[in-house]
Amino acid sequence: MSDLDPTRPKWPQIAERLTERIVSGRYAPGHLISHRAIEEEFGVAKATAGKAIAELRGRKLVRTEFGMGSFVLDRAEDDHQRDGDE
Q: What region does 9 belong to: left with phi over 0, alpha with psi -120 to 50, or beta?
């Protein structure tokens, strides 16, 4: 169980913690972020874990592959692709 602030919604707090892990390199590109691991670590329901992962997708930090899970994106590749679009 974690020390989430009980006065705030849980999913944005979880998304922020996961974002910190991705940005710091603790979760390397390709790292699997699973609903089950989030549920167990933070003591939340599957729907809450899903909202946190959806937020990470919205931030372009993970990609989700149906039937496989959500994986950390390589931010350098994403930056390079955006540079090529300009």
A: beta
